Amino acid sequence: MSGLGLDAVAETVYLTALTRVRWRIADLARQLNLGHGIHPTNVDQLHSDGRLTDAVDQPRADLRLTAAVDQLRADGLLVPSAEESGAVRAVAPALALPALAASRVWGLSAGDARPQALSIAQLIARHQPPGPDQLHGLDEMNSFAEHLVANARREVVILSGQHRTGSFEFAVPVAEAVLRCGAQLRLVWRSDLIRTPTVAAHATWLRTRGAAPRIVPALPTTMLLVDRSVAMVITGDDAVVNRTPASVAPLCVLADQVWSQGNPSPRRHSLPDQTPRHHRVLRLLADGLTDDAIARQVGVSVRTVRNDMAAAMLSLDARSRFQAGVRAAQLGLL
């Protein structure tokens, strides 16, 4: 196992996938020399969710590549391309690796491989985008949006005037990354989008996380605004990235105006906050609360809080609660 908590083949596939915006599986196989026996006429026959065709239907496929791609998809490190059917895209490390660490940290036992904070930090540092002024295509926009959102510290605003399958605007991992770091997530959607079943389901999930979207009859633009310092303005299949104070300031004013004019999205029924309890306990501990205070806020017993902390220390390989908090922060869990 590597410092990322992946096996060697899966890590190699992921690192290779990061070198391009998107890959066809056949091209990955050739690049990695993992394609011995893969038939060129059927390697691109993927399931609708992007997985390789079942081994029983493709007996000569290299099972190592099949297993690696399926593992990476399950772990949220590979997703289907939003532009090319059958192709996959690597999710930005700054977004995907903290999410992977968060998903694994509670389920590990002593001796299991753990994602290592240093390995994650080093990979994220090596894959910082160069800071483009223009982006072309939904895959490029998704990758850059993942990077921006993963580095947000205070606030993320998304104005969505249209729904496109695979867009970052309606992706659960993007919203999770904002909420996990404690930043405010403000979403404004054009009102007719809520009639789309997938959008309505996403709105319901967002309400459970305390980030209910607002709706307006029309939007002047589609935009991602992060920490009021950088904005990606989208027009069709292209986007312009604004970074200068002079260009970002009017976009902040626009975002505030649209947010203030928005109405809450239709609510089907009242839903409780579903932020994972372990995550809330870790965050409250990092904020300096005592076990008693954490128990009152979370609504559990002090014993449950202490059990959660013991599990966190085991999974994070920490000798103290303080060290557990530090390692959780390093892994992007707070």
From TrEMBL:
Protein's recorded name: DNA-binding CsgD family transcriptional regulator
Keywords, ordered alphabetically: DNA-binding
InterPro entries reported for this sequence: Sig_transdc_resp-reg_C-effctor (IPR016032), Tscrpt_reg_LuxR_C (IPR000792), WalR-like (IPR039420), WH-like_DNA-bd_sf (IPR036388)
Gene Ontology process terms (BP): regulation of DNA-templated transcription
Tagged with keyword DNA-binding: yes
PROSITE patterns xrefs: HTH_LUXR_2 (PS50043)
Taxon lineage: Bacteria, Bacillati, Actinomycetota, Actinomycetes, Pseudonocardiales
Organism of this sequence: Kutzneria kofuensis
DNA-binding keyword on record: yes
GO terms, molecular function: DNA binding
Pfam families recorded: GerE (PF00196)
HTH luxR-type domain segment(s): 267-332
Alphabetical list of CDD domains matching this protein: LuxR_C_like
Gene3D superfamilies linked: Winged helix-like DNA-binding domain superfamily/Winged helix DNA-binding domain
